[in-house]
Amino acid sequence: MxxxxxxxxxxxxxGAAGVVGAAPATIVAFGDSTTATRxxxxxxxxxxxxxxxxxxxxxxxxxxxxxxxxTMHGRKRFAHDVLAHKPDLVIIQFGINDAAMDVWKGATESxxxxxxxxxxxxxxxxxxxxxxxxxxxxxxxALRWTPKLKExxxxxxxxxxxxxxxxxxxxxxxxxMRKVGKAERVPVIDVFAAFERYGKAPDKSVDDLLLxxxxxxxxxxxxxxxMLIPQIMKMMKGGRGRGR
Length: 244
Hints:
Elements: E1 2-4, E2 7-9, E3 14-15, E4 18-19, E5 25-31, H1 44-54, E6 59-65, H2 71-81, E7 89-93, H3 96-99, H4 114-130, E8 134-138, H5 147-153, H6 170-184, E9 188-189, H7 191-199, H8 218-235
Parallel strand pairs: 5-6, 5-7, 7-8, 8-9
Antiparallel strand pairs: 1-2, 3-4
């Protein structure tokens, strides 16, 4: 602070991370094992923490991804793992474990019925809106067969003879998330479509983006991050003030 000709002037210094001393925006990445920390893998939450400050947005990214979880598990920990952080923005990505039909156990239904999946997503979105947090929905990534996955899931309704046959059920859950986003008026980052689109390019394959047929590798997470960053910058334009 400096006084010039009797006028008090507050000096503000800006850097790569925005206004020095400004409280960072809290972003929570809420999901399953495609969100959770995985060894040295550079998951999208890590990329956001590194790259958003370099673009002028100071952030604290909290990873609330848990392996094996679906939206029913998410409901049980939503208050503690998400709302308790008073987030400015929450990224929600569930679906793979919700849609999964454990045919190797004799199951004939998905782990979480479609209607319940949709209801859970709506619950998350509406609770976050009530808390004045911004929300981004993110469709689950597309899957591909591996020998191990074929051994477990290579039965109807899945089609082991089709390279995309492990997505038979998941495709419907991704579509349901898009509909929830439209109905609730929140943006949807369509990772499922982006991975499939990548796989249709010459000399490209969705397998290039996956560690094990299910989880994105570094390249897959880079694609996710490249989609998220401009959307986050747009939504957080004007600072960390809580959304509507």
